[in-house]
Amino acid sequence: MLFSLSLLIYFAACKAEPPIISALDPTVGMMGDIISIVGKNFGADQNDSYITIADQKPTTSSYLEWTDTFIRVRLPEFGRTGLVYVHKDERKSNAVFFSNRSEIPEHVQAASLGSGLHIDTIKPVTASIGSLISIQGEGFGAAREKGSVRFSWAAENNPLSNREHSEKPAIEPFDMGFGYESWTSNEIRLHVPDGAISGTLEIYTLYGKSAPVFFTVKEKPGTKVFRDKRRWTIVYSVHIQVQDASHPNTLYLWMPQPAYSSSQPNVELLFRDTEPFVENYRGTTLFQIKNMAAQTNISITMSYVVDAYAVETAIKPQSIRAQQGTSLPVSYTQSSPLIPSDEPAITELAAAIIAKELNPYNKAKKIYEWIIANSAIQHYPLNTSVLEALQQKKADSYSVSLLFCALSRSVGIPAIPVAGVLIDKNHSAFVHYWAEFWIDGFGWIPLDPALGAQAAPESFSLREDAALWYFGNIDNHRISFSRGQNQLSQMDPRGRIAAHKPDYALQNFWEEAIGGIISYSSLWSDIAITGMYTQ
How many domains does one find in the chain? Predict the structure, then answer.
């Protein structure tokens, strides 16, 4: 009997899943710093389990927290650059690369392009996500033009593979109104972008790039993991038919571009059959068509390749602290006709939902859970406003995402709707909306109330734990075209604008007719998925 019990215990141990590391934060640090390891199968208690960093074991007193999915440990003072493993029951995890900050030179030599571009100082050199920093030096250019400041960025388990490529993964500021504040020849003021990690920082201009310098992102109240990249190729178009027109006349078309973000960091134009009037006008490609004749047809087609990552966050609400200088502009919290956060019906409901809760993350979670439990959410569009959806208790992805933003803003949480397409297993694209909210010192956190309520096309592969997972996490079967409402300005105050019903981008208008265009019609195509690749 004792032999059988021992055999049972042996086989149970053999069947145990090995530990898996999904994220390390930070991936670059100083010995003595605290790092967080996120993953699974670590064990509910440490017991005899341990981690190694470059084959070195921290002392028992170095471990600050150990759960089945999360470890916090202080780095040993004698440690060095190398691989991190979690060891449990004589089995070890996958490897994640950690760099000792002291072994990285302050200035890494880059190819000299003879531009005279260099960085002298960064103030501060250590800052939180969203913080305003100043980069001083020479040769930046009198205006930004197509210049950029690129921070280190990494997807899950890719530090080693990235070392094989000359082009390091990077992220630059992308939020409208919360990215670059100023750009002169000797100073750039900007906010640390969502998704940035400790590592090298470089400036790119039309005339060359700077040598990298090291920048440290302060410890965050949790982790954000980018994983499972999907590379989508898409095509879409607009067709214009002019019935009656006289000269002079002009038609402007604002065609949305896939939005740049930390989860969608690579957007490349593959094809365009018409040269634009403005390459990038607030996230759109602006086309100008002049002096169209009656009974003519015009088409414009664009194709892009877009890298989309799944995002998973793990937040420690008790570690959230207000960060000086990281608060978003008031536009992310103020009321608007689209997001009526100051309407009595919204403010009263939000106050009732959050009750006495003070933590912003917990507030957002309560709002999300209330929406799922109290709204009949469907995938097919209803074209209802926030207040109509609230009154009727019926919503689609559009109205329910706006409702989340309105309720969140009414209790002081910055929140934005995100518009784009959801891609099913047949590679068909459906117009879809979701949302993001901001936590100081951490960045944007995604959520999808519609999918959390299982309101998805039948052909979409929905997770069994959708209600739980789609708060704080997002899949890679989607492409975003706008984050927040894209407020465009008319080219001519006399122009006649055309707005669209909820579509794959949230912008206030799409077309503007000026002069002798008496009658015309437009047909905007759906987004077509022409390819998908995994890496």
Answer: 4
